[in-house]
């Protein structure tokens, strides 16, 4: 049985909050074992906790904020638009993907794919 | 080789325009042979031109307008938010999905999945 829409929405909101202020471990805890991450879509697919931890460690300790846009949930899957703004010194980097997530019956993420293009969906200010 | 970002964007824009004012044949022409359509996600997957034509015939002759929101294109795939407003008599029905499309190297759609929930992402006014 698919996770409920409410549970999935909760996980998406936790994810967006943790990407801004959480640790890599906290984010990885939202994922199922052997989950996959493809970010951005078209690049190598990461699989499993170690690889996912490594991916999110890049965000740890950065000054970051996130905001969630349109979210759609159907059939135990979610797609959602969000913005991640990281600040390094006086520069702000904004990435604005649409993510696709698949969930297991307990609401853990089994697959995440982030749709964005570094040449058009990222800006510096 | 994946279709170019420009080609994919063009097909997405054609799709959104044709959903409002095109015929089922014109829309089906954007699809590859043996393409699949899952709309909304979680319902039965349609496969092939006849089934896709049948799906879009439901829109033919309706008074409809569409608007395209955020579009993200990566790795030969696209996700995009849009609104479809159909008017029947004095009632307007708004559906606001996020669609995911996969394209072949010629830019034809090989798979479309529409993420929306009839209980939350559709409104009547």
From TrEMBL, chains A, B:
It comes from the Bacteria. It comes from Nocardioides marinus. Pfam families: SnoaL_2. It is an enzyme of class 5 (isomerase). Keywords: Isomerase. GO terms for molecular function: steroid Delta-isomerase activity. Residues 12-111 form the SnoaL-like domain. This is Steroid delta-isomerase. Its EC number is 5.3.3.1.
